[in-house]
Design goal:
The protein has about 120 residues and is mainly β. The chain has 1 helix and 11 strands. The strands form 2 sheets. Strands 2, 4, 5, 6, 9, 10 and 11 form a 7-stranded mixed sheet that branches. β4 and β5 form a beta hairpin. The relative contact order is 0.32. It is globular.
Length: about 120
């Protein structure tokens, strides 16, 4: 399921931004979905994941309480609502899809990656 992330941009610390990830094809609801982020010199970091129905969500400790992952299976779209943004949230954000939740949570061997979208948080 090809993915395209968008919605990144420049935002002040404390502000909010919503990322979206559009999936093509008719099997979006068959996939567990996740968001990851990467900064220069660092590996890709898990941010959040969501079950196929949207009923289950998982978050990295660094974003818990500030970020909300959701999905709309009718629109084949994944979202990441980011509130109370911090300077350290600056990164390229990627969406991912896999048929196994363990793979999404681990971040290795994921079936599909979207192109990244840059989020820059300024002071």
């Amino acid at each position: 399921v090809p993915l395209q992330a968008y919605g990144g941009g420049l935002v002040q610390a404390g502000g909010s931004l919503r990322l979206s990830c559009a999936a093509s094809g008719r099997t979006f609801s068959s996939y567990y979905m996740g968001w990851f982020r990467q900064t220069p010199g660092k590996g890709r970091e898990f941010v959040a994941a969501i079950s196929r129905s949207g009923g289950g969500t998982y978050y990295a400790d660094s974003v818990k309480g500030r970020f909300t992952i959701s999905r709309d299976n009718a629109k084949n779209t994944l979202y990441l609502q980011m509130n109370s943004l911090k300077l350290e949230d600056t990164a390229v954000y990627y969406c991912a899809a896999d048929t196994k939740i363990a793979t999404i949570l681990g971040g290795y061997g994921v079936d599909y990656w979207g192109e990244g979208t840059l989020v820059t948080v300024s002071s």
